[in-house]
Amino acid sequence: MAKAVAQQQTGGNGTPESLLRPHAEQLYADELAELAKADDRQRPPNWKLSPWAVKTYLLGGKLENGFTVSPKYIGNPRLVEIAIATLATDRALLLIGVPGTAKPWVSEHRAAAISGDSTLLVQGTAGTDESALRYGWNYAMLLAEGPSMNALKPSPMMRAMMDGKIARVEELTRMQSDTQDTLITLLSEKTLPIPELNSEVQARKGFNVIATANNRDRGVNELSSALTRRFNNVVLPLPETLDQEVEIVHKRATEIGRALELPVEKPALEEIRRVVTIFRELRAGVTEDGKTKVKSPTGTLSTAEAISVINNGLAMAAYFGESVLTANDLAAGITGAIIKDPVQDAVAWKEYLQTVVKEREGWKDLYRACREVL
Predict the structure, then answer these.
(1) Residue 66 is part of which domain span?
(2) Which of 14, 18, 28, 33 is deepest in the core (most CB within 10 A)?
(3) Whether residue 263 sits in one domain with residue 116
(4) What CA dihedral angle connects 63, 69, 73 and 74, to 10 degrees?
């Protein structure tokens, strides 16, 4: 039965082709395997790859045998090195940044490269309780047998400690403060007490934690100073240049469109450049040439939202258009991403359309399309 379920989940042939979103270690299994074969550098205990190979996996590059590793992160290489080096020590890693800076994406790929397993994940929400970080109970067995290891349900964090792997905690600042502080003992003592059994789980070598934190959205619960000291903080910035952000959006939109099997041509770079330009200018409050100041909307207008707009446009083009991405396919997605507050954001967007988009050479089609959906 278990084998049948596994085959069904991987398309029946050991590949993730039928999965909507394969895990990183499934999607890039060939790259991880080639890196492991070419990797003759020293590896920290229980790491699948050396720090050099983990960096190559994240940033991409060509191996000595000619195999090309695709980049998973486009950004400052030094930040990648600092984060990898942190995970080779006894300090946990905290990735901080505004929404859309690829924090979950980076944490998933780091875990896949280091542990070969990115699934040991705790998703932080306002309702996440301590059991998500510690353990729970099978209450039927608990009532029948009393407290025992058989009745205990290990959390992803507990499994990571037992197996010497990387655990991921997404949106740490979404959790309530008392839940966050559950991590203090785990990170400082590398031990998970089980008082009900008068026992404990001690972490094996290779265990560490990658957490992500959003420092801008509503609902953020600040970390205590005691917990903050257990992490090495790495701030992931937004893409520095327009070209860099266009490259990121094009790469991810193409990958997602391929996974969704959208019957459409690859997204046109020119349309991506227009979307990214709009988002960057509204984020910054000034046009790229620095000549015109504009009102910024309340939303973050992140790179992730730009990718979403392009993918939505590709779906529109595929099923209701001519299979070629146009301004008409993008207009509704752009407007929806920008207008979060129906009053304040609508004013900022209309003003931007009139003063910037309408006057920009070659953008008349986008101006008309956006005006139609307002």
Answers:
(1) 2-235
(2) 28
(3) no
(4) 70
